[in-house]
């Protein structure tokens, strides 16, 4: 019984030795030249002898392969520390390439996108959603798409290049944006929204760090993605017809907050028509967002867009389940897609 177990173990070790010899010879095939054929042949003999179960034949085949290993392959085996170092270096290089060209992480620092994104959310940003860019520049190497209404984007603020903002695209080239009694209008067409109850949250004061309670009205907004033509007339049905035609190309549905009461006949805009190669952005927390409505209206050059927000992968802050206290892990927000 013991002899049979030792023979079985020897056969397994021999097959592993033959496999390793073949792999190492294939990796260094140019340097080995004709010797690779001899190694492959010897490895084949070991494999056949191990499967045949003849101890004498296996011993002879192993001696031939061992001699070839010592002559041609032993000096080419990397020490274990070098194997680990190369694996770690490769992983680091791949991670840097992914971050430079494909995917990046961004922390939400303010409440301007509540309730879609809250302070302490960490999000993944797809850097190839619109273009493949040369890292650390605005140069777009390959165009992969164009921003659409409803996209949540991370961009370099054109008025402060040291700051990255996250906002929602509400206007694309050719659009005219206007807010009438807190309702978003695109090219004169109101974008429907329905009340969705109240929303309470706490945002920390930038001066004291203490939480400031906010209670706002929540709405579900439906922003048409297709071309929005101005209404043909002044009848209510004309605007609805224009919205329905644009909605045939898709609708972005998301929640927005209004923390101030609407004033009768209040307006913001109409703002300057969105220029080619630019977008108009707004925060979902409409009354507490510094966005394209400020300073008479400003627009984001497409070249300043770092990518499209895709997923909340981590969230830590007030209301977290564990640990208790000033902040904790918000399990309900982990791996939440960004609409």
From TrEMBL:
EC code: 3.4.21.89
Membrane topology, record value: Single-pass type II membrane protein
The entry's keywords: Hydrolase, Membrane, Protease, Transmembrane, Transmembrane helix
Gene Ontology biological-process annotations: signal peptide processing
Primary localization: membrane
A GO cellular-component term linked to this record: membrane
GO molecular function: serine-type endopeptidase activity; signal peptidase activity
CDD domains with a match to the protein in the record: S26_SPase_I
Residue intervals passing through the bilayer: 88-106
Superkingdom per UniProt: Bacteria
Catalytic activity, as annotated: Cleavage of hydrophobic, N-terminal signal or leader sequences from secreted and periplasmic proteins
Catalytic residues as annotated in Swiss-Prot or TrEMBL: 112, 167
UniProt subcellular location: Membrane
Family listed: Belongs to the peptidase S26 family.
Descriptive protein name: Signal peptidase I
UniProt source species: Anaeromyxobacter dehalogenans (strain 2CP-C)
């Amino acid at each position: 019984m013991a002899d049979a177990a030792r023979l079985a173990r020897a056969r397994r070790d021999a097959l592993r030795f033959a496999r390793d010899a073949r792999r190492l010879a294939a990796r260094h095939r140019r340097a080995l030249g004709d010797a690779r054929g001899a190694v492959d042949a010897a490895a084949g003999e070991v494999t056949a002898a191990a499967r045949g179960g003849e101890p004498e034949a296996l011993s002879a085949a192993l001696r031939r392969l061992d001699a070839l290993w010592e002559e041609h392959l032993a000096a080419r085996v990397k020490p274990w520390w070098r194997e680990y170092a190369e694996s770690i270096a490769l992983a680091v290089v791949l991670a840097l390439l992914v971050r430079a060209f494909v995917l990046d992480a961004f922390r939400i620092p303010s409440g301007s996108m509540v309730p879609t994104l809250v302070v302490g959310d960490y999000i993944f940003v797809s850097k190839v959603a619109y273009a493949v860019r040369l890292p650390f520049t605005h140069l777009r190497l390959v165009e992969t798409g164009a921003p659409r209404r409803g996209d949540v984007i991370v961009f370099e603020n054109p008025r402060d290049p040291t700051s990255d903002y996250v906002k929602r695209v509400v206007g694309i080239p050719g659009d005219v944006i206007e807010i009438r009694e807190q309702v978003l209008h695109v090219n004169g067409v109101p974008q429907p929204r329905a009340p969705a109850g109240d929303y309470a949250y706490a945002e920390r004061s930038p001066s004291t760090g203490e939480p400031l309670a906010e209670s706002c009205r929540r709405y579900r907004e439906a922003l048409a993605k297709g071309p929005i033509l101005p209404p043909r007339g002044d009848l209510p049905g004309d605007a609805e017809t224009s919205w329905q035609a644009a909605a045939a190309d898709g609708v972005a549905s998301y929640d927005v907050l209004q923390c101030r009461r609407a004033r009768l006949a209040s307006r913001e805009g109409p703002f300057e028509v969105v220029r080619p190669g630019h977008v108009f952005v707004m925060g979902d927390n409409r009354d507490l967002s510094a966005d394209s409505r400020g300073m008479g209206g400003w627009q984001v050059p497409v070249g300043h867009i770092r990518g499209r927000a895709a997923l909340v992968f981590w969230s830590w802050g007030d209301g977290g389940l564990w640990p208790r206290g000033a902040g904790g892990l918000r399990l309900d927000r982990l791996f939440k897609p960004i609409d």
